[in-house]
Specification:
The structure is a homodimer.
Chain A lengths: L1 E6 L8 E5 H7 L6 E6 L2 E10 L7 E4 L1 H7 L6 E6 L4 H10 L6 H12 L5 H14 L3 H13 L11 E5 L9 H10 L4 E5 L9 H5 L9 H11 L1 E5 L7 H13 L4 H14 L4 E8 L7 H17 L3 E8 L7 E2 L1 H12 L7 H17 L8 H10 L2 H12 L12 E6 L4 E6 L1 H10 L9 E4 L6 E2 L4 E7 L2 H13 L3 E3 L1
Helix pairs in contact in A: 3-4, 3-5, 4-6, 4-10, 6-11, 7-14, 7-16, 14-15
């Protein structure tokens, strides 16, 4: 079939062709099928979209990618024919039947994901296969290699260390403090973080309330050269593009299969050249994993890291309730600053955990003798060195510490009775923070006046909600009344 | 966030909003996420697409559905905010964990599929959940009810009978013959068929080479009133729109999970008001199912049909090799016509199977006494009544029997030695027919001069390939040389 090109000035990120619904019927193709678009000796495989009205029967609307590949222009004619699915579709089918894939096969799938040769539905099948069938350690290692191979990779000198939390605990923003302390001690910490997927904020969202977090790789080298560290968003660097794409499909159903979690974290650590890695695994009620799950993760992390010649430690921490006082980008930055500045109202639980994590990193890298890590970390913090380092990093990332503004609509939540706080549910508090506008509304969030195990009197403040719109505040209050987020005995 | 509407004259089939990539980053949304688009008191949930260049940062390109729902025009401003996934996403997650769904839950998912509220990736997760976890008889029945409820439904008088083959056998085009014989005997047969998914041709593709197959429901009533039967494509009638959409996602990975197969077939039979149904289950090597699989399907078909008060029979047939001589739309019509016209070169295996199936239907509907079905069917066929009826149906569907043209490029395949044909692989022959251009190229396909168990001499013709382009013929020959499609001993 020959069709006339209509350019839509549309860069879809992959070769996409839009056909008139009549033309699609004639070709017997559906949305997400593929066709071969040919011009002269050139050809490109395009994913199909179908529209009524936008284009005529004899036309084909193509994305910029196709014009470029075929060296074609609007108005020219191309021929169109059916084509078969890429080989990786068969491999995904194989994995969905729980047949393990080898290195070549997993590399093929990951390559096709990065090159946008697979549709969202096909990637969803791949995620389902991992979710339902799991992966052997060997398969996870192949996956890691494939993710690293298809992305950019940093090369850094010095003792390159890193930390990572598997997430799920509201307010648990240790990273900026640990990075500041450890890089003050001479370690190189190229910290890349994610944005929030289901939580109130990711480290990238939090730092973004005071500095830029999106950089190119050359810009990143400059920041690290200047400060020995960084606090940036991983997504813009192209270090693990396959992983970014897979996570995007996982979040549709809120899935986070263990093999993909392991591969995602370790591929990113390898991509930034980390030689020493500390993994924080919060576990417990309303955390991401249970204790047996945490122990299993630890075993697998350690095994895989060993095979990749990375010195890695896992620490299991209490993830049954929020840590710190603020939940939401600006509120969390305020917590971090109060610890770095050592103000009296700083959240001591967050400080304690940050010092503990810093201590382990200082010891495992050999910067500090065994048994003295936490003590040295504390010195670096109380001396103001860590705060100075944090300011350096923020400045290098084009930021400053002024003008932190909380949402202008707020509501104090008071205790209905005297008692003791038995439980604060992480998942519910994260969800509530999102209703308030997190992470897009930087000033939105929840300030906890009290945390787990604290005593509280009737009518005393438990927490304050912040929002940037009255509407969202109202929605959050309505939602709060419906759920039991806090248990008071 | 407030954005200016840019209309794309784009009817996407669901509310789709395209954002500039910078705007998407600011909102922290990705492709396939959802946003709430508001104007005044109206609001609509839209699925997001992201583009560079097509639209500006302060713009939002929206599909016609959104303009209509919001009563908005190009150039007007709308506000945009984050929203949560529809409830059915959580239900799909639940099913992916193999937790059974109840009637209300399955109805919710099916309704969202029909209303295009779920993305392709989310439907892929739903298909995965069925594929990996299976479904109880109860769940399949809920699924059937939901599919029927969300589609159109025929109401017909008389003894309404139907036949269906689960497919997979090349050339097995009994339907037009069975429909012609049984409606000649006074039964009402509102036969809707599918187009090919992975085979060379579906019944709809075959009939389309001589008549129209796409009709509206009122047009269909007229055809049935005139002829007591029809041979149309099910897809254009809107009888089971949810099923059509699910099949579209299944075909990406070539999946056909048993519960969905059962639900799909039975929902369509209920939708056309069939009271008597015969299911042909071909089994064996290179068929869709093995013998134990066929027996399991039979048990389930019978149980569910009973619950829906349908008289249903399953017949297990030999599906280990092709049936008939022609494979491909025009070639199969030629087989059918030769049987209806009783020409000497007609394929006797296809005739025999068609008579057997017709006989069973005539007996189960009580039209013919037990033990005499096949005999009466044969009389109807040899008397020319069935051919007359077939001509009536084709005429009522705007067709005629002239000008059946085979592809003008052909190649005879000769036997490399004397021997006996032990095996012809259905899957490979179907695939080869698709390489030749089936089902879009109506004249493409394979003519089998010999079939399983036939003796053959060296240099005698085994089969002839037909294609509408030289290129496809060459591709098919190349492919044929690489695979072992036929075993000769």
């Amino acid at each position: 079939m020959r069709l006339k090109i209509k350019s839509l000035k549309f860069a879809a990120g992959r070769p996409v062709a839009i056909l008139n619904n009549e033309t699609a019927k004639q070709l017997n193709v559906h949305v997400d099928d593929r066709i071969l678009v040919k011009k002269g000796k050139g050809s490109v495989v395009a994913v199909i979209d179908i529209a009524k009205g936008l284009i005529k029967k004899e036309e084909i609307a193509v994305s910029q990618e196709i014009l470029k590949d075929l060296k074609a222009k609007s108005g020219e004619r191309v021929s169109v024919e059916l084509t078969f699915h890429p080989e990786s579709v068969n491999l995904i089918h194989k994995k969905l039947n729980c047949i393990p894939l080898n290195e070549k096969e997993l590399t093929k799938i990951i390559k096709d994901i990065v090159e946008n040769a697979l549709t969202e539905a096909e990637i969803a099948y791949f995620v389902s296969s991992i979710y339902k069938c799991g992966m052997s350690i060997k398969e996870i290692e192949y996956l890691i290699k494939a993710i690293v191979k298809t992305g950019k990779r940093l090369r850094l000198r010095g003792k390159v260390a890193d930390k990572h939390s598997i997430g799920g605990v509201a307010g648990n923003r240790t990273t900026p403090i640990v990075v500041s302390i450890c890089s003050s001690a001479g370690l190189v910490i190229p910290k890349t973080s994610s944005r929030a997927i289901t939580s109130a904020a990711g480290t990238a969202d939090v730092i973004e309330s005071i500095a830029k977090v999106e950089f190119s790789v050359p810009q990143l080298y400059k920041i690290i050269k200047k400060t020995k560290a960084c606090l940036v968003w991983g997504g813009s660097l192209g270090l693990a593009p396959a992983d970014d794409k897979i996570i995007q499909i996982e979040r549709l159903l809120n899935l986070d299969p263990e093999p993909q979690l392991l591969a995602s974290i370790l591929a990113k650590k390898i991509a930034v050249d980390s030689k020493y890695v500390l993994i924080d695994i919060p576990y417990g009620k309303s955390a991401k994993v249970s204790k047996p799950g945490a122990l299993r993760l630890k075993r697998k992390f350690e095994k895989i890291a060993k095979d990749f010649k990375i010195k890695l430690k896992c620490i299991l921490t209490d993830g049954s309730h929020p840590i710190g006082k603020g939940i939401g980008p600006v509120l969390e930055i305020k917590d971090i600053l109060s610890i770095l500045k050592q103000t009296p109202e700083r959240p001591l639980d967050l400080e304690k955990k940050s010092l503990m994590l810093s201590g382990i990193i200082l010891e495992m890298t050999g910067k500090v003798k065994k048994g003295h890590g936490e003590e040295i970390a504390k010195k670096i913090l109380t001396s103001g060195k860590a705060f100075k380092k944090f300011q350096e990093i923020i400045k290098a990332q084009g930021g400053h510490l002024n003008s932190l503004r909380l949402g202008k609509f707020s509501k104090e939540i008071l205790s209905p009775r005297n008692g003791k706080i038995l439980e604060i549910d992480n998942k519910k508090i994260n969800f509530l923070a999102r209703v308030l506008g997190c992470p897009a509304d930087k000033g939105a969030g929840i300030y906890l006046h009290k945390n787990k195990n604290d005593k509280i009197k009737k009518q005393e403040k438990i927490m304050t909600f912040y929002a940037e719109s009255e509407d969202k505040l109202k929605q959050a209050i309505k939602f709060y009344k419906k759920i039991e987020m806090i248990k008071i005995k």
